[in-house]
Structure formats: C-alpha cells, structure tokens
Request: fold
Amino acid sequence: MATLHTQDELARSMSQAFSFLEAPRGDEGELINLSAIESLPTFESSKKKMLNQVHDHCPDKKQIIQKVLKVIEEDHESFLRCIRDRIDRVGIKIPQIEVRYKNLSIEGDVFVGSRALPTLLNATLNAIESFLQVIRVVPFNKKVHKILQNVSGIVKPSRMTLLLGHPGSGKTTFLRTLAGVLQNDLRQTGEVTYCGHKLSEFVHQRTCAYISQHDIHHGEMTVQETFDFAARCLGVGTRYDLLVDLWRREQVAGIKPDSDIDAFMKATSMSGQESSLVADYVLKILGLDTCADIMVGNQMRRGISGGEKKRVSIGEMLAGPAKVFFMDEISTGLDSSTTYQIIKHLKQMVHIMDATMVISLLQPAPETFELFDDIILLSEGLIVYQGPCENVLEFFENVGFKCPKRKGVADFLQEITSKKDQEQYWFKKDKPYRFISTREFAHLFTHSQLGHNLYNNLASPYDITNAHPAALAKEKYGVSSLDLLKANLAREWLLMKRNAFLYIFKTFQITILSVITFTLFYKTSMKSGDQLKDGGKFMGALFFSLLNVMFNGTAELALTVMRLPVFYKQRDSLFYPVWVFVIPIWLLKIPISVIESTLWTVITYYTIGFAPSVNRFFKQLLTYICVHQMALCLFRFLASIGRRQVVANALGTFTLLVIFILGGFIVSKDDIDSWMIWGYYISPMMYGQNAIAINEFLDDRWNTPNPDPRINESTVGRVLLSSRGMFKSDYMFWICIGALVAYSLMFTVFFILALTYLNPLGDSRTVIPNQDEQSKHPKIAKDEGRDMVAKRRGMVLPFQPLSLAFSHVNYYVDMPVEMKTEGIKMDRLQLLRDVSGAFRPGILTALVGVSGAGKTTLMDVLAGRKTGGWIEGNISISGYPKNQETFARVSGYCEQNDIHSPHVTVYESLVYSAWLRLAPDVTNESRQMFVEEVMNLVELNPVRDSLVGMPGEDGLSTEQRKRLTIAVELVANPSIIFMDEPTSGLDARAAAIVMRTVRNTVDTGRTVVCTIHQPSINIFEAFDELLLMKRSGQIIYAGPLGHHSHQLIEYFQSVPGIIKIKDGQNPATWMLEVSSSSVEAKLSIDFATIFANSELYMRNQNLIKELSTPAPGSNNLNFATKYSQSFFTQCNACLWKQQLSYWRHPQYNVVRSRQQDLMNMLGAMYAAVLFLGGTNTASVQTIVSIERTVFYREKAAGMYSPLPYAFAQVAIEVIYIGIQTFIYSLLLYYMIGFAWSPSKFLWFYFFVCMCFIYFTLYGMMLVALTPNYHIAAVTMIFFLSFWNLFSGFLIPRPQIPLWWRWYYWGNPVAWTLYGLITSQLGQNENLVDIPGAGSIPLKKFIKDFLGYEYDFLKYVAVAHVAWVALFFIIFTCSIKFLNFQRR
Reply:
C-alpha cells in the first residue's frame, strides 16, 4: 500500500472537497453541524483513520480484490448502482461534462495526384518549392483538403453516443478535435467547449481521453503491468475528495455503508499504489483477467491477440480519472459477442456514473447498436444526423428511405449516403428515385425538428454557473512529481529486466572484443630507441578502446526509437512530464556504463601493457565510463531527432563520422584547417581521446629523452602527444573529464527538449487523385449495384474448379515454457482436435469461433502456411493428396495482417501480383483488363495511385489496406481462396463491398472459405455453409446455414436448455452466445460430443469420403514448371517493383557522404570506408526487414523463387550505390587531395563502389540470417568492430601478431584500404619525414610500414568481387532456406 497523504495534503484536499462537493440546497442545519465537526481537533486524524480502514476491514488486500471482483463479475450494473446509491443518499452531486462544438471546420494542405508520391524527384522539388515559398518567389500550390465542414452539435453526459461513418468521412479527425489532440499540420476554425469553457481554460488532456485505433504498448510488459502503470501515473482524480466528503456526510447522518462498496471505494481512491484495484476492476470488465499476466507482445515477442491489444488500449485510459472518452474504432479484431459485452459495461458506467462517451465503431451488430442512446452520422465531413437512436430511422423514412427488416440499422446508415447503395432503400414507389447527396441530407436534418432543437440548444449559451467545480481538471498531472519519478523508475527497471538478453549479449560482446584486443596488442613492448614507433601501437590500442566504448552505445539508438511511439502517446495524455521519462533512463544506464567499462578495462589494461600505475588504471576506467555515458546520451538525443529507424541510423552514423574525424586521432589537430578548428573543440570524442592519451603518455615511463632533434619536445611521451596535436598538461585530464560530463548533461537536456517539442513523423495520408489523372484510367466495370454481369466479367479467366476435403486433422505445437512451469508435464500442446470438413466449388463457407478457437490455425494448416508444429490427418484436393507446391499455384490466401510493400501504389501492387501469378498464356491486354476489373470490384479506383505505406504511419487506411489484400489474391485467379478475417477493420459498407466481391467470386465456381469475427446479419447469411469451432479446437457444427439461417437455428434449438433466438437477433451473435463454454458448464454438455453423435456429422463424413475419391477421368494437379512465370520474367518483375520502391523512398536514399599528412590521408579513407559503408549496412537492414515479411507471403503464394527476389533486391541496390558512389568519389577525391588522374580516379571509384556494395550486402545478409531487425543490428555492430580492429589502420599488418594475421586477410575493409592506398600512392616516390628515422620514399614507407605492394593491386580487385559474390550467395541461400516467420 502506498504511503498515506500528509496532513497538509489532506487539509488541502479537504478544502477542495468542500468547494466542489455540494450538499442539498436549503439544508443549512446540516452544514452548521458539519462546520462544528470540522473544527474539532480530531478531525484530521479521523480522515486518516477513514483511509486506513481499508486495512482494518480486510488485512489481506487480495481478499478485498477477490471478493469485490466476484461481485463485479456476477452483476456489474448492480455493483455500480450500489456505489451511486451510496453517493446519492447523502446528496453529493457527481461532476457531469457536456461537450459542444460549433461551426467546426478542419482543413489541411495536400499535393494531388502523382505529385503526392514521395519519389526522389518529388522530395527534391518539394524542398526547393518550400524554400522559394518562404521567400515568396513562387506561389503556394498545394490543394486545400476539407476534412470537416462547419459541423455543430452537442455531446451530452450520461448518454452513450455512437459515431458512424464510412472510411475517409472524418471520424478520427472529429474525435481528435473534440479531444483537443488535433495534428499540428491541420487548421481548425470554430470552437469546442466543455461545460462552456474553451479547451485553453482547463487541462483537457486529463479531463478527456482519446483512444486511438492504433494499439501502441510496450510489448515487454504484461497486461496487468500496463494497467497498473497507467493507474499509477494518471492518479485518482476527484475520487479521493469525493470519498472524504462522502465519509464526512455519512458520519453526520449516522449511515453505515456496505462493507464491500466501502472497501472498493477506499482502495480505488488511494493514488501512488504499485498495484491498483482500479486496474483489476478494468481487467475484469474488459474480460482481460484471463491474460493479465501475459506480455502484450510485439514483432519480437509473442503476446496477446490483436483483439486483446485493442481492449488493453481501452483499459489503459479507463484506469485514469478522465470523465470524457472518445474511442476510435475499438471493435477491430473483436468478435461480436466480446464487443457487445464491452459496450454493455461501458454503457453502465456512462448511465450510472454520468460519464460522457463517444465511440466510433465499424460494424456494430444490431444488439450492440441498441446499447447506444445517441448517434452521430458523419459523411464527407458533414453531419447527416445527430440525435437519439430511436429517431434515426424515422428521419430517413421522411426523406424516402426505409431500412429492410433483416438489415442492421448501422449497416443501413453507412450505406444510405453511398451513390452505389442508396437506391435499394428507396420505398416511395409512387415517386421517382433520385440520388440524395450528403450535403442535401445535412440540409434536411438542419431543417428537421431534431435539427431545430439541436441548434436552439446551441444558440443558448451553456450556463457556467451550473457546471460542477470539479468537472474540469485544473492540475496538469495526477500525482506528485516524486511519485511519477518512482513509477517511471520501476517501469524502466522492469523493461531492462525484460530486455536482459540484449544487455547480456552486449556484455558477452564486449568480453569477446576485449579478449581479442589484448591478444592483438598483448604486452606491447617498448624497445629502447624505438619508443616512438611503439607508441603508435599504444595510440592505436587506446583509440580502438575508445571507439569500441562508443560503438557499444549504439544499441541505445534502436531501443529509444522503439520506445518513442509509446512515449508520444503517454506524453500527449499527460501521464508524466518529459523529464520524468528521461531521468530513469539516464540513471539506470549508469551502472551499465560502469559494468561494461570496468569489464573492458580490467581485461585489457595490464594485458596490453599500459602504464602500470593503479592511479592511471582508475583514471582510464573513469574516462571510459564518461565516454560511454556521453555516447548513450548522444544516441538517445539523435533517436529523438530522427524518430524513425532509417533516419536515426543515418544521423547516428554521420555524427560518429564527424566527431571521430574531428576527434584528434584520424586527422591531427594541427592539420585541421583554421576555419574548421571549432569542430575539433566541440567534438566530444576529442576530450575522450585526449584524456586517455594524457593519462598514458604523461606517465613516468614515457619520460625518455626525445631522440629526434627536429621535434621541439623534451620527452618521447610529449612527442607522441604533440604529433597528434593533443594537450600536454596533467590538469587537462580533469578538464576533459569535466567536458565529457558536461556533454552528457547537455545531450540529456537536448533529449528532453526534443521529446517535448517534436512530434512523431508521418501520419495516415492517402493521395487525393487529380481529376486529369483520374480521367486517364479506364472504367471497365459499371456500377456494382446495377450491373452484376459487368462485375463478373473479370472473374471468368480460365480456371479449374477444385474441392478441398480434410479428415481427422490434428495439430500440435511445443508446450509453452510458461505452462511447463505451472506443472504441465506434456511436451506438446494440441491446438486442433480431430477436425474434419469439406469445402466445395461454388459454396461460400464461413469458419467461425470465439477468439482462440483455432480458426486461423486450421486455415494455416489447410493452406500449408504453418512453419512449425506437427500435423496429423488427411488433406485432399479434388480426391488427390495435397501437394503444397502445386497447391500454391491454384490457391490464394488473404492474411489477417495486411502485408504489402509500402513504397508501391495500389495499382502497381495488383499489376505485380497478376504479372507473376497469372498463367503465362494470359496476354498483357487480358491481364490489364483483369486488374482493372478487380480494382472496380473491390472499389480501389479512388486510391489506385496512393502509396500503400506503413500501417499506422502513412499511406492507406485500415480498410483500404484490407481491400488491397483481397484484391492482390483475386488477381491471381485462384481456384481455392482462403480469407482470414476479410472484414476485420472494415466499416459495415466496406465489409458489404468485400463480401459482395467474395460472393461474386464464389458464383464463378471457385471454392472460398472465410474466417469471420463479427458479421452482420446480411454478411453472415451471404454464406452457404458454416464450420463452427469451440475454444478447444474442436468442431461443433459443420453444415448448411439455410434460408435466414433456419437450419443452424433448428440444430442448436434442438439441444435441451438452449434459449430461443429473438426476433431480429443476429444468428451469428446468438450462435456464439448459446455455444459458449459458460453455457456448456451451466447445462453440463459438450457441443463437440453432441455434433459427433449427430446425423449432420454422418452426412459430413459421407461427403468427405466422396470428395476424397478422384472423379472418373480426372487428373491430379500438375504443372510443367514450379512457378507460373519464367526465371527471366520473375527477375524482371521483382526488379521493377524494387526500382519503384527505392525511387519512392527518399529518406533511405538521402542518408546514403609529412608522415602525419600520410596518416591523415589514410585516416580520411578509413573513416569514409568504415562509416559511410556502415551507414549503408545499417540503413538497408530496416528496408530488407520490411520487405522480407512481404517476401514470406509472396513466396508462400508461389509467386517466384527466392533467386529472382534476391537478384532484384541486390540489382536495385547496385544501381543506386553506383550513382551514390560516383557523387561520393568526386567529393572524397577532391577533399582528400589525390592527384587528378583518370586511371587513379577509376581505381578509387571501383574500390569505394565495391566497398559500399559489400557493406550493403553484408547488412542484407545479416537480416536474412537473423529472426528480426534488432538482432541483426546488434550482430552488425559486433562484426563491424572486428573489421575496424583488423583493418590495418589502428595497427598495420606487419605489426599484427602472427596468430591474428589470418583475420586481416579475412577482413573486407582491410582489402579496401589496401586497394585505395596502393592505387593512389603505391608508385609515389616523394620523400616523407618519419620521426626518429629521417626521410624515406613514400612508396617504400607504404611497403615497409603498412605492408602494401602495388603489384598486388589486381588481386585486391579480384578479392572485392569475391566478397560481393560471397555475401550475395549467403543472402540468397538464407532467403531460400531460412524462414523465421512463426505460424
């Protein structure tokens, strides 16, 4: 239990309570009595005693929780009613909030047509135009896009409001505007008020909560931990003040409250608790108590389902004190039964506790729709209707449209404004139909009685004096800064423990590197008279150590970028101030810096042979700790600037390159031009380099007299320091340490500022088509509602009708470790149990079941998409055993997760799929017509030129992405189509469009099976047959639905004890309710057993037996080639798509830049090769990781073999690298100062180009070899450190010990430096001054000191080709043989 409030806090809270909690008017006698009680000296202690009673009532908090939660589970409404009755009994008013919006308009500026595509050309033009517009040289040429158009209305408290509208109607913008979280790039006119107050007059982020349609959570935290953290940060709001005043009044009236209610209210009124009863309550009402201890999960971790994540998004905000809720499409991924239960609980909260709530739903079932009181119907940015749900049908009937009897009201409302759907609802047959536009509907509503009442209410200003003083939040944060800091510290520690593998791997990595380093520099000796030469080895060892410490901090970049989406969500909801988020990250990483730096120093210091003084040992350790901390702070800051992995990687690599070049080792301070010397002094690396060099070379053992009279320094140590332009005074060590600490603090402050003022990059945007461009595209199909023949024309390419039968199918996976720890001894977990069924041509089959029943699992097994586990049973295609290679050619699979290449358009995605998957004898003209037909069928023409984009970031909306998934499979002209949740994430109208398309596909003689979550009556009854599964992976019904589902209804109603279906009830919802596990337990029956003993089961077995026997004269599926298209066509198609993807990814393409004189030159090339090449490696990994997911889907669909994919991926990289290298070569060649010679420049270009190619291929290879991007990134850093160490720059090859020299030749960077130096300087006869050795020819120095020979140059060139070939082969083989997709 958290620490109780201090007396001052209680007094302050009490004074607030008296001001905002009102007694009944006229009851002055009671107020006098209360005043007398308050004056008693024991009153303060009595309040403390009141809160402590939660312990006295039940010493064990778990008993309270279990007892109260049991009451909530049995009757949630009665429980809330008891709380409200207790409050009403003493005359306390609960705050209510009315939200008004008046003349609200939202607009933004967009490019139209192809100009909106983010190609390299457009990105360049946009940058130039933006600059010219700032100086007013060219006019503003973007189009103004109106999202909301002069909408007005009132959202009343204690009433559930449903927001309906088709995708693109402005629902999300509307909700965000009401919540006060509108995007910065949109313009708003009009006003939004809460209880008559503008948003600027109170803290609206704590008064209301906006719940996004995107589920953003920490995958490493469990559901319980997510809710507890939210409750701990958001606080209890006015619940504490309410309870104090309630207790005060009950004491006066002599009322003794119900013990359970009292315990619950006290437990939920205490802020700062690590584990909150509020979180347990929310878990219970959202049905998440069964998965409370399961991690939420993400791409790296297996976690809860998508529907459960959606509920976590809701519960996270319900755990706070907000009184107004705006929920955006919260039913995505939920079955209709779960959606109904959640909405029912929310309705009880709204009605009983006087909350204000607006909920946007896509496909509300009729019974869910009936739970709402009011409805707002939005279309094309206009409000078509706003008012009570019971009056909405009457309004449209007055216009001339009537909802059919078996049509859901929500479905009717979403289709009534569609030009293609409206006519079917016209019922005034005595009058000719004409299309009523959205603007006309809005005008008719404004002049209706409901509209007059609404606008009359708006015309009367809200009476602010009636507003409850506690209704609107005045404090910015819910709890004290100290409590918020404790909560964030606890969460950061938890996340670090959950990511322990990363830190263990980093520790292992630094251990391995330190061992290799000390073996390379082992006991570096100082020969008398040759200390200057040996000092270079010490300098190289110091620099590599510093470099490694810096590189070891780069993992912080990816970790920070990964955490930013959750941070932005919680920042905008005022969970905590930014500094509270940053401080725990900074503090808890200090021990990491200490451990890693200590490990490195302990292993390397004495083994290499640094100054033996203990004092200097600890000073070097201190330097490494400060450098590591500075690097972590720097990378966190860069991540907050970049905000996306590609951009952040580029910033990180570029920053490292700059601070290293200016750090004083690669280029000496004395050789930096005067106009750039400021860069030397602001480079944090310089201070680290100087600190470790001063610490080493000012030791007594380096006090040997200087043997070279040409250098004006007294000792060898000072000669070595001055040769690099470093400081030569002991006190400068502490100044450098102070500078490193200052940089750590400065970068942390910059990190806080960046997180405070910068917003996440990107948002959902689609291309608005240009009318001129739209007119170029042919419209093959006629209006869907009027011309069915035209719709089917594109689906009649030749195909072979096929059936699919399966019998006694079982599927097992390895028993999860968590279940084994609970005492389960079995090695395998069975997910499917004795499943049998058949899918036939021309029959549309629905695969239905509650979440976790095994619907997707069964579909994956039948489609051959499982990558692990054990499958038993028989699967046959038209009587022949299924062969996966041939089956992939004739089947399509629409996955639940919409996986597409983000940087191609909708039209190009379909062309690509048709190109590779249609039969080779289909002509280009037929293929083009087929693609156009499918686009019309699925209504994708309005977004044909839109980029697909990344989900939740940019590009297509959820429902457009879903339709694209279906269209990509339809253009393959498959005989059998599997669709996993094809209507999930779609509104009712879009779902109807999709299902009409599916129905038309089935009518052509194809076999189609769909899993479906929350179908409307119309969608459900569009299916011919049903296969129903229960949670244990067993079938409980397989057979026809019948007209109006009568056969299904008769089957279940024949079971004794099953309740009858109500008139107008959705058969799908009723079916799931009566077949639930709770009904089984209540009636002591097993639906799987009932089905196995039924006549229907026997009929199915006979059908399966019949379809498992080949028809006379039939032949098994057989194709002359494994893939539909030739190898050349596959390569051509893959290269075409990759070229488009790269051209439209400007972020990725843009990130792709004496002896000491000789060493400066070598250092410049070393830095260019290592860091620019490293940029390529890091940047390409994100791209390949995204495309690999698409590759898995396309490979499973049999579109192409892995070799064309690998060829295209590499070929497009080579093209862009060739251009990139040419630009870089010109710049580098000039900046380094090489002699301008065509042959030398070509050699330089060749080596740099091949270097960038093998670096890029290395990054691609690592992604192909590892399960995810993050492991690939860590592995990349590990091996780049080796390449760096053995490159020949830090320690030349002749000085590398013999036992490590083999790795020099196995290091591609060493070959590149060999080729660059030798090709440019290998024949140079100029003299070079060597300290302590006089002047020798440059050619001889390169050969003797570096080991480079000009005659070996042609072999170096061959080696580069070999490295490229090797990495390409490994990448291709990895793509072909490794599959990290877990299904």
About this structure: The chain has a mean pLDDT of 81. The first helix runs from residue 7 to 20.
